[in-house]
Design brief:
Layout: E1 10-17, E2 26-28, E3 37-44, E4 52-59, E5 67-74, E6 79-87, E7 90-96, E8 106-113, E9 122-131, E10 136-145, E11 154-158, E12 168-174
Antiparallel strand pairs: 1-12, 2-11, 3-8, 3-12, 4-7, 4-11, 5-6, 5-10, 8-9, 9-10
Length: 175
Amino acid sequence: VSQSRYTGAMFPIFATTVGSAGAANITFSSIPSTYTHLQIRGIGRSTTATTSGQVYIQFNTDTASNYSLHYLYGDGTTAYSGGGASQTEMYAFRITGASAASSIFGGGVVDILDYANTNKYKTLRTLSGEDRNGSGFLFFQSGLWRSTSAITSIKLYPSSDNFAQDTSFALYGIK
């Protein structure tokens, strides 16, 4: 059945779950250009001895200062905001660290808009969070990759150490 008639529908492209050895990063490569938008859904933990951490995102192996971002997050008591221009990465998810209870994972969704359009820069928006039995964070972020290249690969990696076992990410195409 042709996918072309399913405007707005989501189709799985890749999915991965980290094994017992952990993983320094997760990379989705050879992303087809046949969709309008991409979405990443995930749950995660890092091996860092903290209760909380970030997952960063880069496109097409670009490690130069071509990213900008704005964020807003809260912990139930205080709201925080900020941003940055000329960054080497953007935020993707908020995840728990190894000091959080072992059954608690951070989770979220990243939308990458018009990823294959070669006439404009690429934007993303994220919603993620974590609950640690009454404490935790809710995190909103928007980002810009200053490139007109179509996105063909996406790298996700934690702010320090590795992804812990059972961290899972799935990439979807949206028609």
